Amino acid sequence: MCAPLSGSGPLQRSLVALSSVEAREREMDTCACALELLGMLVYVGAWLCALTTTILPQWLTMSTALLPVESYELGLWETCVVQDIGGMECRPYDSLLGLSSDIQLSRILMCASLAVGMLGILVAIPGLYLVNSCEEHGGYRTKRALTVLGGLLGMVSGVLCLIPVSYMAHFAVIHFFDEKVPDVVPRWEFGDALYCGWMGGFLLIAAGLLLVTSSWCSQVEPQPVLQQRCQVMSKDFKLRKRSEYV
């Protein structure tokens, strides 16, 4: 414990400065906590969007003038025939080796995006400000490192999600405006899964940026208030002793 010292002047100014520093640290902690919570909520929602994109069969859609009551849907795992009366029949792909390279690459990248995103969530949770963990393994520095690592993994997951979605969209655009194909031949168009994938990919990147930014809001490791006050009073006491000696 620190005994109170008599006198005013430098000690009071030091305590006032310490109080202002503590107020700024509380504001920084509040800002970091808010960014972390927002980042994690966006992170989980974006990961669910990526999962939905992977499962949905509506990556590409096609309707023909010959059969206006039916439309076709192409996904990563199955193809579907949708009828206007409400019926829908889906059929999974017969063979993995018989798939086109586009579908195979999209499968690999989307599964990698989900795996990296889930790993980022699991890594970032122990690093949250409100979670009491890692106190015996470096404390604050370890938590901040976990938060940054989780954010970086989220951004990588977002990029991995955007690559196959954008590639399939590019594939549809190239074939849709191909002048060599007659106008009577039906063409693939964008499906709902592509829009969901774009949203999930950009949200994953945004969530990663929020987590990384939250770690920058509190760069200095916080110390207990009593310890800080003791340090200030000890320094002031030494200065006063030195001035009296001189």
From TrEMBL:
Compartmental location: Cell junction, Tight junction; Cell membrane
Alphabetical list of InterPro entries matching this protein: Claudin (IPR006187), Claudin_CS (IPR017974), PMP22/EMP/MP20/Claudin (IPR004031)
Gene Ontology terms, MF aspect: structural molecule activity
Transmembrane portions of the chain: 34-60, 105-131, 152-177, 197-217
Record keywords, A-Z: Cell junction, Cell membrane, Membrane, Tight junction, Transmembrane, Transmembrane helix
A GO CC term attached to the entry: plasma membrane
Membrane protein topology class: Multi-pass membrane protein
Top-rank taxon, per record: Eukaryota
PROSITE patterns documented for this protein: CLAUDIN
PANTHER family, A to Z: CLAUDIN (PTHR12002)
Protein purpose: Claudins function as major constituents of the tight junction complexes that regulate the permeability of epithelia.
Family listed: Belongs to the claudin family.
Protein name (Swiss-Prot/TrEMBL): Claudin
Source species: Channa striata
Organism lineage: Eukaryota, Metazoa, Chordata, Craniata, Vertebrata
